[in-house]
Amino acid sequence: MDQTLRTDHAPPDRAPPLPPVEKARGQGIARVALVLALSALGLWILSGFLPALAWAVVLAIALWPLYARAERRFPPGGHNVVLPLVATLLVALVFLAPLVILGVQAAREAHDVLDFVRTAEKDGVPVPDVINHLPYGAAQASAWWSANLSHPDAGSDLLRKLDNDSVIGVSRNVGKEVVHRVVLFGFSLVALFFLFRDGRTIRDQVLVACNRLFGPRGERVGRQMVASVHGTVDGLVLVGLGEGVVLGIVYYFAGVPHPVLLGAFTAVAAMIPFGAALAIAIAALLLVAASSVKAAVIVAVAGFVVTFVADHFVRPALIGGTTKLPFLWVLLGILGGVETFHLLGLFLGPAVMAALMLLWREFTVGADAKAP
């Protein structure tokens, strides 16, 4: 009887435990799946802020040598807040000050634009003298201009052709885009502050993660990408700003209208290979439109010399010497990066190309070493 009761109330048989190897393998697969799922969820949550984070990382890498020098000069205290805050505010000032100056300059020159619009609406736009001096088609171009733009109602006719709803829609979209960019810029500054404050800790953690995931090769790839960002900043940003300053001075003495705005546009365009040619062409055409052909030739020649020296000597030495990357791959990385990631691609493109070139060299050198 007791034996029957013990048998009836006995617990059900449990499944036999898994062998240690199968248990470890199952836990490893579950761990990898969890990491991938959480990573994908985190990227999805941060998708709208990834460009801002990328800009903060690029700025931190580019400015870290200067920040480290300032840190040695002014050792941070226990909270380590003042120096990162000052550095972040200086970065914000570097970006905002030119925008403010350009805005003030544009506001001053907007008065001339309004006067031109009022005059055009009242009296029409007279035929420019340069059209009468065209080598071919001068008579036809002058006749078309007189028929469409020179009469007093030309400005009013053009304004009537504009769709007010489209103009309002474009204005709203521009306003939303400006607000969005301002928010992302503020978020980039916040992220940059924390990168300055905790930069050494983050760097050590990244190096440890690279070593654990990829071994010594991962650390070499990471260092190569950092070196590529430094070389790109020196070769694109600094050289582009130098081109803008030099050509802005040339614009001023050549009599180009709005030399400050055109100089700033040239500096930004010069950061993209062959982009400065567009700004130089605009400056030369403005001079030709003002019947200053000799000044236009001077601007074109000066622009060609400056861009030739910068693109063929200065940039290859700065970028290629730092990244050990042929200039052709630097150029392809920049152009492909700009097409894919817009302005951020200026730095991401060469960094990816430098990492791929390093892996290729290690692979081919290893293959050659093992060859009989």
From TrEMBL:
<dbReference type="Pfam" id="PF01594">
    <property type="entry name" value="AI-2E_transport"/>
</dbReference>
<keyword id="KW-0812">Transmembrane</keyword>
<comment type="similarity">
    <text>Belongs to the autoinducer-2 exporter (AI-2E) (TC 2.A.86) family.</text>
</comment>
<feature type="transmembrane region" description="Helical">
    <location>
        <begin position="52"/>
        <end position="70"/>
    </location>
</feature>
<feature type="transmembrane region" description="Helical">
    <location>
        <begin position="178"/>
        <end position="196"/>
    </location>
</feature>
<keyword id="KW-0472">Membrane</keyword>
<keyword id="KW-1133">Transmembrane helix</keyword>
<dbReference type="InterPro" id="IPR002549">
    <property type="entry name" value="AI-2E-like"/>
</dbReference>
<feature type="compositionally biased region" description="Basic and acidic residues">
    <location>
        <begin position="1"/>
        <end position="12"/>
    </location>
</feature>
<feature type="transmembrane region" description="Helical">
    <location>
        <begin position="295"/>
        <end position="315"/>
    </location>
</feature>
<protein>
    <submittedName>
        <fullName>Transport protein YdiK</fullName>
    </submittedName>
</protein>
<feature type="transmembrane region" description="Helical">
    <location>
        <begin position="327"/>
        <end position="360"/>
    </location>
</feature>
<feature type="transmembrane region" description="Helical">
    <location>
        <begin position="233"/>
        <end position="254"/>
    </location>
</feature>
<feature type="transmembrane region" description="Helical">
    <location>
        <begin position="260"/>
        <end position="288"/>
    </location>
</feature>
<feature type="transmembrane region" description="Helical">
    <location>
        <begin position="82"/>
        <end position="104"/>
    </location>
</feature>
<feature type="region of interest" description="Disordered">
    <location>
        <begin position="1"/>
        <end position="20"/>
    </location>
</feature>
